[in-house]
Amino acid sequence: MKKIVISIVLLNLLAACASQKPQETAATPASSPVAAAPAVAMASSAQTYDDALNDPQSILAKRSVYYPFDVSEVQDADKPVVQAHGAYLSKNPARTVRLEGNCDERGSNEYNLALGQRRADGVKKMLELGGAKSAQLDSVSYGEEKPVGSTHDEASWAKNRRTDINYAK
Amino acid sequence: MLKARCGVLGLLMLLCASTANAVLNIEIIGAGEQQIPVSIVPFGGDEKLGLAIGEVVSGDLQRSGLFRLVDPLGKSPHAPAEVNYADWQVRGTEALAIGTVGAQANGRVEARFRLLDVVKKVELIGQAVSANDGQVRAVGHRIADLIYEKLTGNKGVFGTRIAYVNRQGRQFSLIVADSDGYNEQVVLSQHEPIMSPAWSPDGSHLAYVSFETGHAAVFVQSLYTNQRKVLADFRGSNSAPAWSPDGKQLAVVLTRDGSSKIYLMRPDGSDLHRVSNGSGIDTEPNFSPDGQALLFTSDRGGSAQIYWMPVEGGAAQRMTFGGGTSYSPRYSPDGKSFVFTHLSGGKFYISTQDFQTGQMEMLSEGGWEKKPTFAPNGKLILFASEARGRGILATVSSDGRVKQHMFTQSGDAREPVWGPAQ
């Protein structure tokens, strides 16, 4: 029964990733490079990872990292989040993410586009160090063009200084 | 009149664009030190055209901040023989514009106008000005340019155009309009951001950044045919297009090699090569008037400042110092100075700096002011600002005295850029 459920889960994953760039497919968890345990154990941990992405209690539910003004390095508080996503992506090579860098409005629009790109690229690099393959990762910038907060104060600025980790459905 | 065509690009539907006659509402909030008193008499001949031309000329001269309009108060000479100079001297007018105008069946508008010196009682200008397709505003702007040049010694820019982005909710529109806001033409309209429009030197094309493919990519669009093509769509961000003065090259900023660097390329996309190096951010390239150098923004020294380098790269020279950060440099048309945005103490200031003396001058009071651009005569600077909680366009004269706010009918105006001399 468990195996049938897992197959259905895998099929859903494949369907979701069908329109993405070419990926390793089929029995991914079984052939995962991290696989050290027997097949049954791998199957159950595949189930766990998949749940983890949908689990609101999991660290993977955090999809944004934040920055101080004019800074593009991932901050210590966010490193565990990025590391967790890196590990997840490493074990789920069919998964792809888009990293979207954003900035607050202080600076020119073009400078902020560049800073947002540097933020997204920084997260990308850290995910790769965590085992994600570069083919799974895309990094773009919205600069200050898509703010979530629009007031001229730190309350909005802090929300805008971030990189979003956006998984393809 | 240009009509844009609907187009489909990838998975996104570009909304049909149409010409609109929406007006930028212009408020004058500062005037020149000395204003020349002039009277504009509505031209004779075709009454309606005469009034229209009079309005355009008066509006142009008034907005320049350098003229004081003296009401003709019922006097309406149309030829020198009809002018009684004493009438005008008594009103304090120093220059008087009179003339006649007519239209032909094919839409050609022809005006004959004269500018008279009221004090010396001589004719300063006597000229015929005409335009096709009922373009009476173009005739008015040309006359205003002639008056402006004669009386100030500087070239007028009343016949030029501007481009800017208007944002309303999720809708972004790239607009081209006359510098007084009339004759709006929607170049592009979509639900994704548009940034950094740049005019080709001959005014025929706009390069700009569009996010329609999901990331920043550079496009070039013909303003005559509305045909557009992708100029740069590499991985990451492609942005900050700038045309060389001879129109044969563009500078762009690409992140394809790992960080934001400046590249040069031909308008057809060929001969792409990088001219800036290092691991920091280099962006906002701007060509010198002789095409031999670039100003740009870089954080290579630890914070965003303005740098200068030869156009093909090489040793870069830092231009801005002191506290704060600086962005968005643009050369003055005479190449002797540059305008930029200075961020200090949490406020943006539109500033200029002289190349020879290194002296910096702040032209605005400080607020949310960005992306300054020179008029082709170097006497006016257009920039994005805020007033009454909305994004607006604003102008300031290069001496800081004459100021205007320009409100779009709705939405927020941003990313302005002044077009070339006509």
Main sheet characteristics of chain B:
6 strands, mixed
Number of discrete helical segments of chain A: 6
- CATH level-four homologous superfamily name of the largest domain in chain B: TolB, C-terminal domain
Tell me the overall shape of chain B: globular
What is the number of helices of chain B?
3
What Rg of chain B is obtained from the alpha carbons, in whole angstroms?
A: 23 Å
Please name the CATH topology of the largest domain in chain B: Neuraminidase
Q: Unreliable runs of chain A, pLDDT <50, ≥5 residues?
A: 1-47
- For the record, what CATH class of chain A applies? Alpha Beta
User: CATH superfamily of chain A, please?
Assistant: OmpA-like domain
Describe what this molecule looks like in 3D.
The complex is a heterodimer of chains A (169) and B (422). Chain A is α+β, with helices and mostly antiparallel strands. Chain A has helices at 2-17, 28-31, 39-54, 79-91, 109-129, 154-160, and strands at residues 64-66, 97-102, 137-143, 162-167. A four-stranded mixed β-sheet of chain A has the order 1-4-2-3. Chain A is globular and about 40 Å long. Chain B has 422 residues and is mainly β. Chain B folds into two domains: 34-152, TolB, N-terminal domain (Rossmann fold, 3-Layer(aba) Sandwich); 160-418, TolB, C-terminal domain (Neuraminidase), CATH 2.120.10. Chain B is 10% helix and 46% strand. Chain B has three helices and 34 strands. In chain B, strands 5, 6, 7, 8, 9 and 10 form a six-stranded mixed β-sheet that branches. A five-stranded antiparallel β-sheet of chain B has the order 3-13-12-11-34, with no helix packed on it. In chain B, helix 1 crosses helix 3. Chain B is globular, with a radius of gyration of 23 Å. Chain B starts with 6 loop residues before the first strand and ends with a strand. Residues 1-22 of chain B have low confidence and may be disordered.
